[in-house]
Design brief:
The complex is a heterodimer. By secondary structure, chain A is mostly beta strands. Chain A has strands at 4-6, 10-13, 19-25, 31-38, 42-51, 54-57, 64-70, 73-78, 87-94, 102-103, 107-111. Chain A starts with a strand and ends with a strand. Chain B is mainly β. Chain B is 0% helix and 51% strand. In chain B, strands 2, 5, 6, 10, 11 and 12 form a six-stranded mixed beta sheet that branches. A four-stranded antiparallel beta sheet of chain B has the order 3-9-8-7, with no helix packed on it. The radius of gyration of chain B is 13 Å and the shape is globular. Chain B starts with a strand and ends with a strand. The chains are: A mainly beta, B mainly beta. The interface between A and B is medium-sized, with 26 and 21 residues.
Chain lengths: 112, 112
């Protein structure tokens, strides 16, 4: 079974803090993704990575950056957290040549 | 461009009722189509998928048929259970498999 884990299920941060969300997959997948999920808006793609040190912007990259130093780990960084970044963050990975994304359990981030 | 539209919820049904959640899509080319399910407090899990016209995906009693002529992928189940209460997302992915397009989600409540 594919396993995608995220470092925290719940996180509370203050405005202006630097926030790191970590995602690890154990299936040697090349492609990894970060989404945010908000009520009524579904899932929106923030960034994705198709290889180590490679990244591409998704639909809503503003205010976020990412890091992919190792194949199994994809980090989402909020350089200076703001209240409008309060959301559920979902990480996903996809095997090479496959069309299915596999999701982690999500991190619910609250920025006060 | 690509997009997915699914019926708004919440949908409330009694146990053993018949379920339909409508999903229509707009896409260039020949996308793969998916239904994901999100149980309370969890990430998204793949429920079923179909990769070409007239394919039927099925899992756990749920079914959906890829209808190219009506650009639809409606989710059905003959007899729902309380344990089916969750949010259901319809999604498509284009030829390069990188960009998933999700619907806004439909919440299903099943009452005993």
């Amino acid at each position: 079974d594919v396993k995608v884990t995220q470092s925290s299920r719940y996180l509370v941060k203050r405005t202006g803090e630097k926030v790191f969300l970590e995602c690890v997959q154990d299936m040697d997948h090349e492609n990894m993704f970060w989404y945010r999920q908000d009520p009524g808006l579904g899932l929106r793609l923030i960034y994705f990575s198709y290889d180590v040190k490679m990244k591409e912007k998704g639909d809503i990259p503003e205010g976020y950056s990412v890091s992919r130093e190792k194949k199994e780990r994809f980090s989402l960084i909020l350089e200076s957290a703001s209240t409008n970044q309060t959301s559920m963050y979902l990480c996903a990975s996809r095997p090479p040549g496959g069309d299915t994304q596999y999701f982690g359990p999500g991190t619910r981030l609250t920025v006060l | 461009g690509n997009s997915v539209t699914q019926m708004e919820g919440p949908v409330t049904l009694s146990e053993e009722a018949f379920l339909t959640i409508n999903c229509t899509y707009t896409a260039t080319g020949y996308p793969s189509l998916f239904w994901y399910v999100q149980y309370p407090g969890e990430g998204l899990q793949l429920l079923l998928k179909a990769t070409k016209a007239d394919d039927k995906g099925s899992n756990k009693g749920f079914e959906a048929t890829y209808r190219k002529e009506t650009t639809s992928f409606h989710l059905e189940k003959g007899s729902v259970q309380v344990s089916d209460s969750a949010v259901y997302f319809c999604a498509l992915v284009g030829y390069n498999f990188n960009k998933f397009y999700f619907g806004s989600g439909t919440k299903l409540n099943v009452k005993p």
